[in-house]
TrEMBL record:
Residues 14-220 form the Peptidase M13 N-terminal domain. One of its GO terms (biological process) is protein processing. This is MMEL1 protein. Gene3D superfamilies: Neutral endopeptidase , domain2. It comes from the Eukaryota.
Length: 220
């Protein structure tokens, strides 16, 4: 209750400016950080929680249960920037190898990989090993008809961009769409370079344009 009162502006007349009356205290005491597009009590709680979690994850792991140990191992692996820089793109290249490589980053994928490549198998690998849903989203959740049991749900996954508006609308959406395509082209070129595959900009652009067209069809 004290926090709500603190975030109000009782000096304002609610009949003339209810927003200032209800939120004026908050507006006077908070500025949206340059790194954020919004700032609310939930953002503040999230920042406070991250500080607490950081302290917990940096403590000694002696006597911790297995789940805590795994969380601390993951945190340490993310903080070891020296090793991350040293490994460079190797983890990504290994992940691509596990799912049958990436046609645009290969000189002869259709000959060496495609004959034995299975979409069903690689979709399951993406889901189980990398927690990445492509084309189909599958998860276990409470049954809407019987909350005492869990069932498998099959749903559509998220798109490459935040919503389908980005694939069809003009203005800022179009600028984001163009940047998204250029980003895909840039990543493909970088991976080809790291794999010592010959430079072929026109091939990369054509392939990524096909990916963009395919994503647009899915969004539609």
């Amino acid at each position: 209750a004290a926090r709500i009162i603190q975030n109000m502006d009782p000096t304002a007349d609610p009949c003339k400016d209810f927003y200032q009356y209800a939120c004026g205290g908050w507006l006077n005491r908070h500025v949206i950080p340059e790194t954020s597009s919004r700032y609310s009590i939930f953002d503040i709680l999230r920042d406070e929680l991250e500080i607490i979690l950081k302290g917990v994850l940096e403590t000694s792991d002696q006597g911790d249960r297995e789940a805590f140990q795994k969380a601390k191992i993951l945190y340490k692996s993310c903080m070891n920037e020296t090793l991350i820089e040293q490994r460079d793109s190797l983890p990504l290249l290994e992940a691509l190898r596990m799912v049958g490589d990436w046609p645009v980053a290969s000189a002869d994928w259709s000959k060496t990989k495609e004959p034995s490549w299975s979409m069903e198998e690689n979709l399951s690998i993406m889901n189980s090993r990398f927690n990445k849903r492509v084309l189909i989203d599958m998860f276990v959740w409470n049954d809407d008809r019987d909350s005492s049991r869990h069932i498998i749900y099959i749903d559509q996954p998220s798109l490459g961009m935040p919503s389908r508006d980005y694939y069809f609308n003009g203005g800022n959406y179009q600028r984001v769409r163009e940047a998204y395509l250029q980003f895909m082209i840039t990543i493909a070129k970088m991976i080809r370079e790291d794999k010592n595959v010959s430079k072929d900009d026109s091939f990369v652009q054509e392939e990524m344009a096909k990916v963009m067209e395919f994503e647009t069809e899915i969004a539609n």
